[in-house]
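Example S7 (structure tokens).
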């Protein structure tokens, strides 16, 4: 009732005059004809609305979707009016707006750019929109078969070249296309237990979008024989299939190999492998680097870290070996997730060909493990410190101070970047002298001043002489140890031995008064003082009469 009321209120409105000011949901109820000059922008905005607001098969929904298709194919010259159709931007399929002059090539790809002209090419008009568009395969019979095939090839080629995240968005669109193409809600039917459509063949896999032709996972399962499945696995995986359809493929694979999937079949799993649990992967026969590389290929989509951990554990437990290219594919972060015992199984030469691995997330113990292996791998370069440093740099977070000092005193400029310096083992860095740090950083030494508030730098500075920091580095670092002040200078070298002895051995500086016989010429004699450990005056000894 509310929608009906809204429709009456909008009956006198022309939403196409200033459609940018209306929300997308409102544009779905537009009662006016959309001008050809702005129809693409109008339907592009309307496509972001909730199509379910319009009842399936309703006149308003039919008119809207036909208008969108008419806008898309205007000027192509197709006879008749196409059937109900959803037109919606396919987000993520490409960020540019190519020209409309291209058409599908023989191989099935459909580049959007200058090329040969095909006036009836549907894919050509897909490229004229601000973002690539996707159309339902359920076109009217009045649309030429060649155009329908052109669209299918164009969509399939675009899908096959998309990243996994872009494919997810495409699958969301396909669901909307299938829903919009249905004239009425699907009736709930009791399972028939048999294929109600044509059986899936190698030809139909190559020439159609199976998700549209087999509208339930059950029918997809019943119409796909195990033989066709196994012989055409790669082609099936290239199809835009929602997760529930992919699970049908997984079920067939498990049914065909109840005792475990053979290694040659594991290499073919592609995106299907990501649907297996860690427990299921534990039984895989992954024994070669070739199989591991095929499974880890990014073309199959993203793995969960726990899955990769299980995959590597399974491979190593079955005697498999990790090569340099495999380590590069695994990445430093996942390498750090391995157990220390597993890292110990990695050959040193594998690190030598792994390229740059970011092992910053490793524990200190694992960094030291990997450093020792890297030092072994690059030992032949030790005679050329510059080349040696470039290769071992990613692993220096595990280096002991002795090795860092050797690099500093190699006699050539190391020019360690500040990031590598700050990633050194904090305990080992504190053992480096001011000269060591100067030689390691080289031309990057001034950058150390910018990092003076880093806890690692502050603690190192506090251990160094401020005078050395000023004289050797000269970059203004403060906070080092100051020279002691107010000390008595040492005795002059010409001081006599006796004086030196007195200065070091406590002796009395006065002697007790020694009584002497009376002297007639003296009016009074010195009075003896009480004997004390430290007398204060010397007594006068009178001369004999």
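Recovered sequence:
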């Amino acid at each position: 009732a509310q929608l009906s009321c809204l429709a009456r209120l909008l009956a006198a409105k022309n939403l196409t005059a200033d459609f940018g000011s209306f929300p997308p949901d409102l544009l779905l109820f537009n009662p006016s004809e959309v001008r050809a000059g702005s129809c693409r922008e109008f339907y592009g905005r309307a496509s972001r609305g909730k199509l379910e607001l319009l009842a399936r098969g309703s006149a308003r929904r039919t008119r809207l979707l036909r208008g969108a298709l008419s806008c898309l194919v205007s000027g192509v010259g197709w006879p008749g009016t196409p059937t109900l159709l959803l037109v919606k931007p396919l987000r993520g399929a490409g960020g540019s707006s190519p020209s409309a002059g291209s058409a599908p090539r023989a191989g099935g790809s459909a580049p959007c750019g200058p090329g040969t002209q095909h006036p009836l090419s549907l894919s050509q008009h897909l490229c004229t929109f601000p973002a690539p568009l996707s159309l339902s395969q359920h076109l009217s019979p009045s649309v030429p078969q060649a155009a329908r095939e052109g669209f299918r090839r164009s969509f399939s080629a675009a899908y096959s070249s998309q990243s996994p995240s872009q494919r997810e968005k495409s699958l969301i669109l396909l669901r909307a296309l299938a829903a919009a193409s249905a004239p009425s809600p699907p009736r709930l039917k009791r399972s028939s237990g048999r294929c109600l459509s044509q059986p899936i063949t190698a030809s139909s896999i190559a020439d159609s979008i199976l998700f549209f032709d087999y509208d339930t996972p059950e029918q997809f399962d019943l119409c796909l024989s195990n033989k066709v499945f196994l012989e055409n696995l790669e082609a099936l995986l290239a199809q835009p299939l929602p997760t529930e359809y992919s699970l049908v493929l997984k079920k067939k694979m498990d049914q065909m190999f109840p005792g475990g999937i053979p290694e040659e079949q594991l290499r073919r799993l592609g995106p299907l492998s990501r649907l297996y649990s860690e427990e299921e992967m534990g039984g895989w026969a992954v024994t070669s680097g070739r199989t591991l590389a095929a499974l880890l290929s990014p073309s199959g989509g993203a793995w969960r870290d726990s899955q990769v951990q299980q995959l590597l554990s399974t491979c190593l437990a079955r005697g498999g070996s990790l090569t340099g290219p495999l380590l590069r594919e695994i990445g430093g972060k996942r390498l750090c997730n391995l157990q220390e015992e597993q890292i110990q199984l990695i050959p040193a030469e594998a690190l030598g060909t792994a390229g740059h691995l970011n092992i910053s997330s490793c524990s200190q113990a694992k960094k030291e493990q990997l450093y020792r292996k890297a030092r072994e791998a690059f030992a032949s370069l030790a005679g050329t410190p510059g080349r040696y440093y470039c290769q071992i740099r990613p692993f220096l977070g595990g280096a002991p101070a002795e090795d860092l000092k050797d690099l500093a005193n190699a006699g050539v400029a190391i020019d360690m970047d500040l990031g590598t310096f700050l990633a050194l083992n904090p305990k080992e860095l504190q053992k480096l002298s001011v000269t060591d740090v100067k030689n390691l950083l080289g031309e990057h030494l001034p950058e150390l001043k910018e990092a003076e508030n880093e806890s690692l730098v502050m603690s190192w500075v506090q251990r160094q002489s401020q005078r050395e920091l000023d004289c050797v580095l000269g970059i203004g670092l403060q906070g080092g140890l100051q020279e002691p002040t107010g000390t008595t200078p040492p005795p002059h070298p010409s001081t006599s031995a006796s004086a030196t002895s007195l200065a070091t051995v406590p002796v009395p500086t006065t002697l007790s008064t020694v009584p002497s016989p009376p002297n007639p010429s003296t009016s009074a004699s010195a009075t003896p003082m009480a004997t004390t450990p430290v007398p204060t005056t010397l007594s006068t000894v009178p001369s004999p009469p």
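Notes on this example. The chain has 31 helices and two strands.
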